[in-house]
Amino acid sequence: MTGCRARPFVNWIVRAGLLMLVALVATSGEAEQAIAQEARLDERFGAVDAHLDPNAATESRVGWERITFDWSMMQPGPGTTLLGAGLEDDWFNNARTDGRQVVGMLVNTPAWATEGRPGIGVPAGLYLPPGDPGNLWASFVREVVGIYGQRGVDHWIIWDNANIPSGVYGHGWEGSIEDYYQLVKVASIVAKGANPEAQIHLAGYSLTYDALWLQRLLEVVAADGAAPGNDYFFDAASVHVYYQSEDVFSSTQSAFFVMQQELGTLKDVWIVESSAYPPNIALAEYPPVTPDQQASFVLQASALALAAGAERVGVDRFVDAQSDEGEWLPGLLGPQGGPRPAYHAFSVMTETFAGTQAAARTQLELVEYVRLSRVDSVAYVAWARTAQPALLSIPASGDGAILIDQAGDQQALAPEGGRYTVRLEGADCNAPDRTCPIGGSVVVLVETDVDPFANPPPASRFQAEPAPTLSADQVTPTPVPTPVPTAAPTLAPTETTEQVEQAPTQVPAEAEEPTQVPQPTAAVPPTPAPIPPPPSGAAAALPFVLVGLGALLVGGSVGFWLRERWKR
């Protein structure tokens, strides 16, 4: 009978232990799944106004988004309490929930706050001390940063299109370059006072309109004796690039060069707007673009941004929107929410580029590619530079690879003779001068479970030599990386007789492979890949609970056995 009395209690211990184990394993699985999902989100890749379709933003792994804070709408009259002006709480709540960072852009002077033109005029009292109530801009920035800093907004872009000349589409600032610097300086002082975590970004600018704008601005900054002791009153430069995908690289490198030249230090460079809009908008100075070209641009621009050392890259825009001038600006998603090819390309980019630790660019005659290195994988992002189709031969580091096209379709590849051969379709060279502002369709070849640093490429942030030479009408293209004798992707013979006659039929004598470039001492190292945090909560406690549970089972069983022996 004693055995019968002991058995129910032992069974209870066993059942309780099994229930605890099942619950903890389930909880641990959920935690690991959440960590894996978090690790897939790379905050470097963003889109303008992603909050307009939060579900699609989550599915496509948007890491950051820009939201416009319109001063003229938020404060329509003097002394008016700051209004939400269409800024919905759900935008910020959803962003926090999904781990998406919000970047605010402050624009548009109210008519009552300027003696100039509404929207683009210099705010009244701008040169008064920041604490003076007559400095209307200071009062606005202090209030908006204080309110929205509590909602997770720490990054603030000060104005937009400040370098577009008067009379040109997008003209955004009628003040002088000195006035704009004062706008930034005041914003920096009051924003960091209201929120110590605040980061100040210069207005987005494009080399297309004024290649020397940033240089002239930084000359003004350097002449201010108070600037060095205040970190020059800004934290990042903001760049706009449209239609010319290779301009992403040269624009980023030029920004680094000018900062090094004028300030002797480097700040982050963000590509805050990049896109190639499909037809039906009024930007007549740009060539027509097909939806497939828009998709190619997204992948090319993002890969080149990483190779150039940009801190962030953003697509303009996530959902179709109407400009102030009434034109429709096509985004990744159409007016009914349907995805364009560029949306699928963006998803491919965020999936395969996430966690990149080093990126290196190579230009061949017909092909351009960027090699991305992650913790245990390497990806080659490749496209044709001309209308000529080409085959790219890539050295294999492992036993197999996955080839992904810009629509997201995948196929497994096995190396032949230690190399993968990838076909690249020619670009649609539809510019008026028959050039190819956007390369051909992009393919991404990914090898996993390999050592990406066996032949380490550079984490190129800024190439000190040779530096780009700026002139009023152009920026000299960044030179092709130095050739080195190592296994590198090469052009292989194309498939048809006609193509063989036009394309290289042998590996170039000096295959161009990126090499490590000396970095300025002020350069900031590349952002490391997201590494899943150590287990926490139930996942962290699981090993200890299992040990305790085992001790409980063993101790309980031994105790009952000893008690029964003693009774006998």
In short:
The protein is an alpha/beta fold and 568 residues long. The protein has helices at residues 2-40, 54-59, 71-74, 89-98, 136-149, 177-194, 213-223, 247-263, 291-308, 341-353, 497-502, 538-567, and strands at residues 45-48, 64-70, 101-107, 155-158, 199-201, 236-242, 268-275, 312-315, 321-322, 328-329, 358-363, 367-373, 377-384, 390-395, 401-405, 410-413, 419-424, 443-448, 490-492. Mean pLDDT is 79; it is low at 1-10, 16-39, 456-486 and 494-547.
Notable features of this structure?
alpha/beta, TIM Barrel, elongated, 33% helix, disordered N terminus, eight-stranded parallel sheet, 568 residues
Break the fold down into its secondary structure elements and pairings.
Blueprint: H1 2-40, E1 45-48, H2 54-59, E2 64-70, H3 71-74, H4 89-98, E3 101-107, H5 136-149, E4 155-158, H6 177-194, E5 199-201, H7 213-223, E6 236-242, H8 247-263, E7 268-275, H9 291-308, E8 312-315, E9 321-322, E10 328-329, H10 341-353, E11 358-363, E12 367-373, E13 377-384, E14 390-395, E15 401-405, E16 410-413, E17 419-424, E18 443-448, E19 490-492, H11 497-502, H12 538-567
Parallel strand pairs: 1-2, 1-8, 2-3, 3-4, 4-5, 6-7, 7-8
Antiparallel strand pairs: 9-10, 11-12, 12-13, 13-18, 14-17, 14-19, 15-16, 15-18
